[in-house]
Amino acid sequence: MTAPPPPQRPPPPPQQQPSGLDDPALPLAVAAVLVTATSAATAIETLKASFILTAAALAALSAVLGDVMQHPPPLTGIIGAASEQTSRMNAARRAQFVLAAARRVLGAVRDARAKGDPVAGAVRDQLTRERRFYAQHQAAMWNRAAAAGRTDMAAAEHGDLLGWLAVADKRTSAACKAASGRNFRASRMPAIGFPGAVHPSCRCQPCAPWPGGLMLAGSGKRFARAA
After folding, report:
1. Among 154, 167, 152, 166, CA closest to 216
2. Given this model, what pLDDT does residue 19 score?
3. How far is Cα 177 from Cα 225, in angstroms, rounded to an integer?
4. For 131-143, what is each residue's pLDDT tens digit?
5. Nearest to 87 by CA among 76, 95, 100, 71
6. What is the mean pLDDT of the chain?
7. Residues sharing a CB contact under 8 Å with residue 220, sequence separation 6 or more, in sequence order
8. pLDDT one-digit tens code per residue, 125-172
9. Which DSSP helix (H) or strand (E) runs through 177?
10. Which DSSP helix (H) or strand (E) runs through 142?
11. Element (H, E) at 165
12. Beta-carbon-side half-sphere exposure of residue 154 (alpha carbons within 13 Å)
């Protein structure tokens, strides 16, 4: 009497090929091409020369870049140290958005294929969502730039060391309440950002430095008092 054959093990699921979108050097490169490239096609050609990206990743990047490059951030100019820091932050955040959006587009493609749904429709729907996300991203960039401009204007009047003034009412967030009465430097962005950019409806303003006020985290030694 022969022994029954051992049970068949299901084959392992196919491993996803790395897309290349997680290369740690890619965000900086994307930030650069967003400034220098004249079109999504030229941006992609520049990235292909330095990075190994799958065809699907390149297609997703191209689609997202096409939308993002049609809507550049508002030109606010560099007024001073706060504006310069914010400009660099906005450029980095814009590049991070491009890569995150490209990953989400790739995820939509994989989900559609797994379900047997049309890929083109999934990509179209995801790009529509990404346009809404990018509109929110643009609003945040503008808010940060405007707050930095107000900080630079205050620094021109009071000097690099400034105070943080929050509106004291029930709408004020806990973070803004905690920052109010403390000091920061226009040349060194606090960890929570500049006044007016903590959240979309932030009403905080820079003011003259508070005598003896504690320094905000990220704008000097955390618990050092202002001179």
Report:
1. 166
2. 86
3. 18
4. 999 999 999 999 9
5. 76
6. 89
7. 184, 185, 188
8. 999 999 999 999 999 999 999 999 999 999 999 999 999 999 989 999
9. helix 174-179
10. helix 119-158
11. strand 161-165
12. 28
- Confidence band (pLDDT; 50, 70, 90) for 64? very high
- Residues 97 and 133: their CA atoms lie apart, in Å, by 9
User: What's the rounded Cα separation, in Å, for the pair 102 and 205?
Assistant: 36
Phi-psi region of 177 (alpha: psi -120 to 50; beta: other; left: phi over 0): alpha
Specify whether the CB–CB gap between 216 and 192 falls below 8 A.
yes
3-state helix, strand, coil in the chain (%, to 5): 50, 5, 40
Q: Mapped to the 3 state alphabet, what secondary structure does 6-33 carry?
A: CCCCCCCCCCCCCCCCCCCCHHHHHHHH
Contact 206/194 with Cβ under 8 angstroms?
yes
d(CA 104, CA 126): 8
Distance of alpha carbon 77 from alpha carbon 75, whole angstroms: 6
Which two tokens mark 4? 């029954």
CA distance 227 to 225: 6
Q: 3-state SS of 201-226?
A: CCCCEEECCCCCCEECCCCCCCCCEC
The amino acid at residue 26 is L
Percent share of the chain, pLDDT over 70? 86
Determine the average pLDDT of the residues in 49-70: 94
Q: Six-digit token pair at 25?
A: 């050097």
Instruction: Provide the pLDDT for residue 149.
Output: 94
